[in-house]
Amino acid sequence: MSNFQFLLSDPGFVSFGEVAVAAEKILPIDPAACILNCRRAMEFAIQWMYSVDGDLDMPEQDNLQRLMAPKEFKEIVGPQLWQRMDLIRKKGNTAAHNAGKISRSVAMLCLENLHAFLDFVAYCYTESHEPGVFDPNLVPTDSLPHSLPQQADFARDLARLMEENKQLRKELTARRQAHKQTYVPKPLKLSEYETRKFYIDAMLEDAGWIEGVDWINEAEFPDPRHQDQLLTADYLLCDSKGAPLALVEAGKSGADLSAIRPRGQRVAELLEARYHRRPVLFLTNGFETHILDGLSPERSCAGIYSKEDLEKLFRLQSFRKALTDITVKESIADRYYQQEAVQAVCEDLEQNDRRKALLVMAPGSGKTRTVIALCDVLLRHGRGERIAYLADRHSLLTQAKRSFERYLPELDSSLLSEESPHSACIFATYDELSHAIDTWKKGEGKLLTCGYFDLIICDEAHSSVYENYEDLFTYFDAPLIGLTSTPVSEIPHSSFAFFERKTGDPTYSYEPTQAVQDGYLIDFLSVKTDLQFPEAVPSYDSLSTGDRAKCDKALSEDSRNLPEKILSSSMNRWIFRDDIIRQGLSILMKEGKRVQQGKRLGKTILFAKNLDHARKICDIFCQEYPQLPGFAQVIHGQSQEAQALLDAFSDPESLPHIAISPDCLDSGVDIPACMNLVFFKRVVSKTKFRQMIGRGSRPYPGSEEGETKDQFYVFDFCGNFSFFRFHDSSSHWGRLSREALLYALLTELMAKLHTSADQSPQYCALAQALNQRAAAIIQALDRSRFSVRGHLKAVELYSDPSRYHSLSPEELSQIQQELSPLIPEGCMDLVTVTLDLLLCGYQLSYYTGKQKGQLRSALTDLLRSLSALNHLPPIAKEGKLLHKLLHTAYLKTATPIDMEQLRPHLLPLIPHLPQAKLPDPYPILEPMLSHH
What we know:
23 strands, globular
């Protein structure tokens, strides 16, 4: 009989059930093998969950750490069970590398935790399963080795199960959702002693502490307030001279840490008086650990610092300086906004005790130089010695490393892929650093302990990075700096939440609109051609919230998690056709931006669907233009020559001049000489599309006089502008949020009203209402946001409705250029702002004559959609009005006052419309702005 016998009766569970039974049977012979097979059984069961549960999407990398990382998975199993599973994962790593240190009691705990997880799986996904309790008496005390199933065989079974379970996903997902509501988690009942032996001792061993050498159990000290009593430190951690570095206070598993804090603080005070240095205090119940270092408020920590970590912390304290009066070196960051960004981060670190910062900076505005300047300030002020710079691709890391070496040459740096992580600044991909945590060893413990780094920088930080690698960021107890070029209005709430910021309020932002105005970015021209994919594809905005999230998370357009409605097989066939490729190349060679007085096509990035597509395009180019050998070449991340080719492409005069790439030129690559971008692929992530456009935005003075780069060309053969509803007749860098566009239109309309010949009481009342509406938008701005604080004078001025009376052309220009970009996306209800945009645009067209037909058509479409919902009582109540608007000439002759009178009737109706039915008025209205 086995604790896992219940799994063998269900055909879906047999594969991992057999491994669990084997783990139990092998315990008396080999505790390490028991834990390894606990880990295998758990991994197989998790893979099975991904195959049957519609709320789980298989990550790009399906190793155990990545499978357990998504928040959707954590929400399903719950925090307590996830902690139990994480112990199995960690102990499995320990067993794989150091089997000699595995005890029977630890293996027994892993079996109990595995049983809790698999019992949960059975309860949630089967029709009827009675929860069981792990019985230690069923674990054999003597057994023969058990024959274990091979992982390769299981992998083939898993592939078959995933295919078979496609039909079961909906049913089993619903069953899990229903059953989980009644599932009662099994508490882990461990005494303080057991918690210490199973969990806390393991943390100390992981960090390299040696019991009896620099780790002392139950250290006792006389209590100065009570001479006949002793104060006891559960764990005392000492330096090589025996001086205390840290205390660890332990509680029972699940105990409230606040209950043990006073005891630890009393011992820390005693040792501070004796040694003139306050030791760091760790509070832990095995599952949860807090650190009190005297530098920042008490915070959660993934584990215990190593001796080297603590010695470094005290060493840095000796020359730590405040960040209140910093000097940013202009030799590193010489632009005003770069220096403002550094000061904003330092202000948060020093005055607000924040340990996370999010910098939003336009592509090409110098994010890397900004963060190098920040590192320089922090290093000079005793805030760190070791830095980790993370990105998702090696090309970004190589480029960043070169910049660090150029602007901060005294900082020793290395790529983790080429060297061990001993340098002061390590450049690594997220996966490389995750892998190194468990594999890089130093003496008795890990090298990369939780206190190893003093600063972590995440380049091109997207929401999917934080969701997929949350464990990595929570493992290292270091300030975290996120860098992104995604506009503030498009950064999801989850990213702001991760950085503990209010939505729409990063630490500092420098948007593309401002960068273009300042002359630090170059605008683009979308070149109109006849080559366009002939079939309609749903727009990004028409997708459901879930499908948009899948698009935004997609690292490639080949992602298996993309919504099926946008995976057009016909488009894939179209872009691979020889005649289409020839036509696209011909358009590029004839109409692309040229250099050397028109003699040669300028540097061009051609974005291909995948590597096969890129190679085919290159082959056809060689056939069509044999007189240009080496002119076009494929650059992709899988090639060992990728960096050398990228360096050659970056040189304005060297071959190749056309880089055909399926992956490594999408973001983060700095090529100022780039004159043309060609989209021969459908991009599904709005963030990624903006980044790709940014590859051409860097200014370039030209190699010859008179060839200054004032614009770059974009050839979009696959309807990306249409998919994202970017207005492709001008740059999307200057695209305002919908709310900002409404504010700009209101100011235009008010300027027209105040100069109108008709100054009747009705028109005066309309002008006053519009004044109030515009002022309310500015009044709602969050003045604590850094971007708003820089424009407080104008914000205060135009929060007053009376300031909108008789706006001069200069005032109108100031409003649209200074205030409109400050208005964030999402600060107004989407349906309300959509209706107000149409009505306001219609009112403005009464005076300008611009776009009136298009606006009437868009408004009529909206009214038809509403009329189709006449079975709903609120809409039926306005049936006569809708009929009048749709079937008479009312809209053709309506005045601004008529349109204003429609507003209170229509506003309650349009919330009933699905968001997909809402028109996008942006392409119609943007050209109406006189100062855009």
